[in-house]
Amino acid sequence: MNKRKSGFMLPLTFIVIMAIIFGFNMSNTPCRQNGHTWAAATCTMAKHCSVCGETSGEPNTNNHKWEDATCTTPKTCVRCQQTYGEPLSSTKEHTWEAATCFSPQKCSVCGATTGTKLAHEYSSKGICSLCGETKPYGNSYGYFDESELYAMAKDAIKDFCYPTYVNNFCSSANIKIEKVTDDRLGYGKNCFSVVAAADFSSGGTVTTKGFVAVIEPHTSTTYAFVDAYVE
Fold it and tell me: How far is CA 94 from CA 63, 97, 109, 112, 202, in A?
């Protein structure tokens, strides 16, 4: 009888020990120590602990995550796909606005987009014929030829020296045009320096002088005066 009793007690002792160990481990989980971190029930999931995954109750069929209606689809829950109402368009078709250089085709009703934006179509002067945007300069004179830049410089130096009369500008063969690239000068990187000479007439005296005009061209006929110097 003693052998039977001993043989019966061994597995019983093992079970008790394992139960104690298991119970201790369970009591030391974060949720056992600090309580569950409950996430609200949604239309597809019951209230649940975001730490251990334990659930409580039933899904909340009123807690949807709605995506706004479009011209082709009604308001729709992204979780359970339930719909509400009707599409914005009675014909279930978009009202497309033409694509531009800045955005693809866009529906004026619901804001949906399709396709891609247009590519700029730059003229030889670097102006986009579609949107009017100016292309960044890509060569020494940008997208303005020498004669245009010289014409701007002559106009700028006349204004700068007024009321002194300035005329008889030197031929284009004797001018020097450079793109401004040194930020230390304090000029923008879209500026050009034009070095040339002309006759300056003041008080009946005419003197030929060299000058430097710094301009920032905007189009082939418009510019901003930046700085000037006359020797």
Answer: 29, 9, 7, 8, 69
> What pLDDT digit, counting tens, does each position of 104-143 carry?
999 999 999 999 999 999 887 778 899 988 777 656 677 7
Q: What is the model's pLDDT at position 24?
A: 47
Task: DSSP for 77-142, please give it.
Answer: ETTT--EES--SSTTS---EEPP-SS--EEETTT--EES-PPPP-B-TTSBBTTT-PBPPP-STTT
The answer to whether the Cα torsion of 186, 192, 193, 198 is positive or negative is negative
Asked if pLDDT for residue 156 goes beyond 90, the answer is: yes
Spatial distance between the Cα atoms of 183 and 191, rounded to a whole number of angstroms: 11
Cβ contact 65:79 at 8 Å: yes
Q: Tokens 């014909």 map to which residue?
A: 91
Give percent of the chain above pLDDT 90: 36
pLDDT at residue 7 above 70?
no
For residues 189 and 117, is the Cβ–Cβ distance under 8 A? Answer: no
Nearest to 196 by CA among 206, 207, 210: 210
Question: Taking the C-alpha atoms of 218, 221, 225 and 228 in order, what is their torsion angle to the nearest 10 degrees?
Answer: 130
Confidence of residue 8 (pLDDT cuts 50, 70, 90): very low
DSSP assigned state of 231: -
Backbone angles phi, psi at 66, to 5 degrees: -85, 140
Cα separation, 71 vs 93, in Å, equals 6
